[in-house]
Hints:
The protein is mainly α. The chain has one domain. Helix content is 73%, strand content 0%. The radius of gyration is 18 Å and the shape is elongated. The model has no long low-confidence stretch (mean pLDDT 96). Pfam families: DUF2165 (PF09933).
Amino acid sequence: MTLRYAKISMVLALATFAFLVTFNNITDYGSNFVFVQHVLSMDTTFPNNSSMYRSISTPALWHAAYWLIIAGEGITFILLLLGGIAMFQAREGSAAEFNSSKKWAIAGCAAGFFVWFFFFMVIGGEWFLMWKSSTWNGQDAAFRFYMTILGVLIFVNQPERELG
């Protein structure tokens, strides 16, 4: 049971994190909106870089990108919460039942990986060259987030043994 409770706890901890990120981005919209604005406009990357044609200077597109990120974070929260609840409900079941209960948690981890790896590292980091900005570079934080998610995903995805 200890392993099952550890897996449930880790999934619910990730759900809590995703909830707080989503909540903060909605209730303090302007703070991180500025981050998205600078990344997409590429205005703090290396001067005279030849990739400025990629920049987006349309405020409506900044807002759309930010809401897409917030939606991804919210979906991550919901899936992880559903996963934690399903795993908790199956905690005393057979190995097969508990393994089956992990599907929402696995989906939540995949969604979170997509948000923090794909949106922040691939799109923000490489397409919009966020790594070239000393002030608006969120790659270190995104790395911590998606590596934590991957660690939990690997642990949760380990097959269960029968209880007792």
